Amino acid sequence: MVFAPEGLALWLGNDFAHNSAPVARFLAVAVLVNSMAHVPFTHLQSVGRPDLTTKLQLVELPLYLVTLFFLAKTRGITGVAIAWFLRVMLDSLLLFCFSFRLLPECRFIVRRLPFLIAGALTLNLVAALIAGLAFKIVVVCGVFLLAVPALWFWMLTPAEKAPFIYLLQRWSVNLRG
Prior knowledge:
The chain is mainly alpha-helical. The protein has helices spanning 4-12, 14-36, 38-46, 50-75, 77-102, 107-129, 133-155, 158-176.
């Protein structure tokens, strides 16, 4: 999302990048959000409620088609990307809500993951609006340096941290000789 104009310009030229960067940005964010939605989707499957995901998609379909038609007509290919982004956002939000309600033992991750995603997306959106490649790189590195400790302290349970701690201990023993 952040480096869409620069990456497309490098790959396909400035004219293509100028016209395609908004599409690439919407698609990049939608892919990220959609990939995170696999967590609640899997939760719902694991509690024996695959019907919920199917019903949800059936309800979303007419909304998506109307939105797709309107945005494609008014905004072209960028509108198509926006329509898919909106569908993915709605789908993810509802999947997280259903998962939160139906799987109480996983509320820890289901409650916190959307906030981590929203925070990272917000910071990357700010970086995307910044002019200058060097400054964008600095901001993205800063987001990464904030996200890793946030993930460690805020998202992972002690049981999830244990393998990493074990590996770090083994690595430090190997370094010492």
